[in-house]
TrEMBL record:
Tetrapolymerization of the monopyrrole PBG into the hydroxymethylbilane pre-uroporphyrinogen in several discrete steps. Binds 1 dipyrromethane group covalently. It comes from the Bacteria. Monomer. Keywords: Porphyrin biosynthesis, Transferase. InterPro entries: HemC, Porphobilin_deaminase_cofac_BS, Porphobilin_deaminase_N, Porphobilinogen_deaminase_C, Porphobilinogen_deaminase_C_sf. The porphobilinogen subunits are added to the dipyrromethane group. This is Porphobilinogen deaminase. GO terms for cellular component: cytoplasm. The modification S-(dipyrrolylmethanemethyl)cysteine is found at residue 239. Residues 225-286 form the Porphobilinogen deaminase C-terminal domain.
Amino acid sequence: MTLRIGTRGSALALAQAGDIAREITERTGVATELVPVTTHGDVSRESLSSLGGTGVFASALREFLLAGKCDLVVHSMKDLPTQKYDGLRIGAVPPRADARDTLCARDGLTLDTLPEGARVGTGSPRRAAQLAARRPDLAIIDIRGNVDTRLGFVASGELDAVVLAAAGLGRLGRTEKVTEYFDLESWPTAPAQGALAIEVRDEAHDDDLLGALEAIHDSSAQAAAVAERSILFRLEAGCAAPIGAHATVSESAITLLGAVYAPDGSGQLVLTGSGKLDASHAATVGADDFSGPAQSSIIETAEYVGSALADELLAGGAARLAPLTQD
Ligand SMILES: NCc1[nH]cc(CCC(=O)O)c1CC(=O)O
C-alpha cells in the first residue's frame, strides 16, 4: 500500500512532511505520498487570536484524517492544542530538531548590537516578552506570515530583525540567515518547539502504518515534548501564552525548565524541576524533587514533571504575571 501523508500546503509544512515521508520509506520500504490540505489559518490575513488561536492550523488537517482522506498527518507539535482530539491519537514523535529560537538580523547584528530603537518582528507574545525583557528600547512589531515572508521584512529593510525558530529555518535550508542563536536556558522556547507530531486515527491498525510509526518514533523526543506540553495542559494555556519551556532527557532523568513572562517584559518567573528515570526506562520520581508515583513509564514521568512544575509556577504567581488562557 501507499501511506497517504496529510500536510498543510505551506513550504515549511511540505518540507517537514517530505522529511517524514522519506524517513518512512528509507526505514521500512513502504511507499508514501503527500496530500496537501489548505487550512483557513494559511489563507487568512487575520491575527491568530481573532481566528480562534490554538488549533486553527490543525483542525482542517484533523477533519481530513478523520474522514479517511489520508492515513497520517504531520503537525508542528508546538502548534497543536494539548487536549486530546476525539478519534485521533499521536502515533509517533520523530527525533527532535533544534529547539532554539534565532535572531535573523540585517548586517550580522545580534540582540546586543542592534541599534537603540531597532524594529524587530515577531507574532509570538512569548518572543515579544523575551525581547522586551532583554532590550526594553526595541520597537517590537507584530508580524504574520510564513518563514520566507518574515525573512522578507528584513531583506526589504522594513524591519531590522525577526525572531524565528531554528527548526523551521533548518527544514527550509535557510539557517544562513541566522545572526544569533539564543541558548535554551536563558531563552526557553515554545513547548515542543522543533518537535513534530505524527497523528493517526485511534483505531489505526494497518501493519504498514504501525510499522512506519514505530520506525520513526523517538521516545526521548516524545518525553521532552510531553514534559514541556504538560505545563501548558496543567495551566490550561494555549500556544499563544507567554510561556517558555525546555526539557532534557538523559538515561537517568528528565529535567525541565519553565518560564512565564509578563507580556511587556517587566517580569518573569523561571523554575526548574526534574524526575529520575532508571536504566530500564521505568521511572522513579526522586524524593529530592517532586514526590510522585513510585514506578511509571518515561512518558508518565514526563507528564508528572510538567504538571508539578506548572503547579509551582501557579503557586509562584504565574497567573498574576501573564494572561495564561486565551479567548
Ligand atoms: N508558529 C509557526 C511555526 N510553527 C512551527 C514552526 C517551526 C518550528 C517548529 O517546528 O517548532 C514555526 C515557525 C517559527 O516559529 O519560527
